[in-house]
Amino acid sequence: MVTTEKEYLDTLRDRLTGYLTGEDLDEILEEYAGHFAIGKSRGRTEEELCRALGSPEDVAKEIRAAYLIHKAEQTKSAGTIWRATRATTHIHGLNFVAVLVPFILFAVVFGLVFIAGLALICGGAVLLLLALIKLLGLSLTLPWHLSPAPGVLTSLGLFIAGIIVVVLDIWLAHFFGRLTIRHLRNKLPAKKDAGFFSPQQAIPQTIAIGRDGASALDLQVHLSAGQLTLGEGAGDPVLMNLTAGNGSSTGPLAYSASMDGTTKKVWIWNRHGCFWWSGHDWPANEPAYTWDIRVSRDVPVAIDAKNHAGRTRLALGELNLSSLTVKNSVGETQIDLTGYHGGDFNATIKNGVGELTLRMPKDAHLSVEIHGGIGATNVRGFVVNGNVYTTSSSRPDAPRITCRIKQGVGSITVEAV
Question: pTM for the complete prediction?
C-alpha cells in the first residue's frame, strides 16, 4: 500500500509513462504534488492524503481514459473512439465483449451504408457518361431499355442519391461519435479534490502571507481558468498578497506556504476543471476567476506562473527575479520588465494560442531566443542573429536576462524599451 507522497507520485508516473506526452505528464504530477502540499499545510499526513486521493493505479486509469477521450474529441475516428471506450470500460470493470459487439455492429452498418453510397456514385457517374455518349450519336448499347434522355436523368438521380447517402452516413457517424464521447466523458469519476478547496466567498478572498524571516520567495501559481495579474506591491512584514474574485464571488482556491531553509515556498492553485482530464467547461461566472497577486520587492523571487485558459498580465519591472517561467495555453499574455534593476535570471515563456507581448529593459544584457509558430513576430530594439535577439549595456551592474520563447498560434511582440 502506498503511504508517502514520493511513492504515490512515482507510481503515478510509472503508470502514465508511455501514454502521455512529457508536458502533459508533468502537469498531472504537478497537480497531485499540489494536493500533497496543500493537504500537508493543513496538518494532514501523507498517508491520509494517499487514502483521500485514492489508489494511484486507479487514478492512472482514470487519467488515461480522460486523455484518450480528449484525443477522440480532437480526432473523431473509429480508432480514437474505440481506444477511449476501452479505457473507460477498464475503469468500471465492464464486460469487454458487451462493449465490443455493439461497437463492431455500428461500424459494420455505417461501413456498408458508406460502400453502398459510393457504389451509387460510381455507378451513376459511369451510366451518366454512357448516356451522354449515346446522346452524341455514337453507336452504343445502354444497359437499360430507355432512350438516352431518360437515361441521363436516371443516371444523374443515382449519382445524387449516392452523394446524399454518403453525406448522411458521415453525418450520422459523427453524430453518434459525439454522443459516445459525451457519454464516456460523463462516465469519468469525479475528482477527489473537494476537501482541498475553500468554498466560494460572498466577498473577494484576500490572503496575506508573511515574510517570517525568509530571504527568498519561490512562488508557483497554477490556474485552470481566469485572469492573472501579478506585480510589486507588498511591503514588510508581508511577503505577498493575493486578492481573488470580483466583489461578489470567487473561484475555488487552494494555497500552501512553507519554509524551505530560508526560502518561503508558496503554492497557489485554482481549479475549475478546464483541463483535458476534467469534464467541465469554461466558468460561467468569468469575472469571479480573477487573481491579483502583489509581491514584495525586498527579496529575490522565483516565479512559475501557468494559466490554462485566460489572460496573464505580469508587471515585473520593480521586482528582483531569480527565475521566471510563464505558460499560457490559451489567451493573451503580457509581460512587462521595463525598468528592471534586479539580479540576473533566466526566463522561459510558452504561449499556446493567443497574442504574446514582452517588454524588456533596454539598459540590460539581453538574449532572447524565439521559436515562433503561426503568426507575425515583431521585434524592436535588438540586434538580430537568426532567431536570437540581443542587446548589451555599458553599465557594469546591468542585469543579464536570458529568455527563451516558444509560441504556438498568435503574434509575438518583443520590445527593448
Answer: 0.66
